[in-house]
Amino acid sequence: MHSLAKLVDDLSRGIDDRGEILRFYNPGEFHLGCLRPCMHTHTFSLLGDRLHLTSYQRSCDVPLGLNFNQVQVFALLLLIAQITGHKPGRPYHKIVNAHIYEDQLDLLRNVQLKRKPFAHSRLEINPDIRTLQDLETWVTLDDFRVEGYRHHPAIAYPFSV
Question: What is the pLDDT of the chain when averaged over all its residues?
Fold first, then answer.
């Protein structure tokens, strides 16, 4: 049984084994991308009927990646909570190296930081998704819906490697 299946099985049975660590960091696959994975390790904690998630990220390009990474953590928590039968608790997102490149500073200061934030949106997941097998066999993007999402016009931040 792979680590995600064991983790889901244990959490579904109410077992909180903090030694179970979900990792997205596979050195054997580094040659497949231009960057090594930034989000790498996830640990779940079951406290009562609430499932909490702590996710670790080695590096974060704040203007380009932070929003995506926060959604990634939150969506992972919601999915695992749903398929293990728990209420989602808090997502904790730990970033080791958060950075803003010099060629992003003007846009960040003069555009993004001057914008007023919108109210939070809500991610709705098809309640029929109940198992890992569901995720692997029939779930599509149509099973996820974002309610109340509003956004400002895109900012064309430069990408640095």
Answer: 93
Identify the active-site residue in 22, 38, 46, 95: 38
Q: Is 38 designated active site?
A: yes
Q: What is the pLDDT of residues 44-63, one digit of tens each?
A: 999 999 999 999 999 999 99
Q: Please, how many CA atoms are within 13 Å of residue 129, restricted to the half-sphere of its CB?
A: 20
| Element holding 23 (H helix, E strand) | strand 22-23
- In order, the DSSP letters of 34-79 are SS--SEEEEEEEEETTEEEEEEEES-EEHHHHHHHHHHHHHHHHHH
> pTM (2 decimals)?
0.90
Contact 4, 135 (CB under 8 A): no
**For the residues 143-156, what does the mean pLDDT come to?**
96
Q: Quick one: three-class SS letters along 118-159?
A: CCCCEEEECCCCCCHHHHHHCCCHHHEEEECCCCCCCCCCCC
Nearest CA to 40 among 20, 25, 62?
25
Q: What is the pLDDT confidence band of residue 31, given thresholds at 50, 70 and 90?
A: confident
How many Cα atoms sit within 13 Å of 22 on the Cβ side? 17
Q: How far is CA 59 from the centre of its chain?
A: 14
Under DSSP, the state recorded for 117 is: P
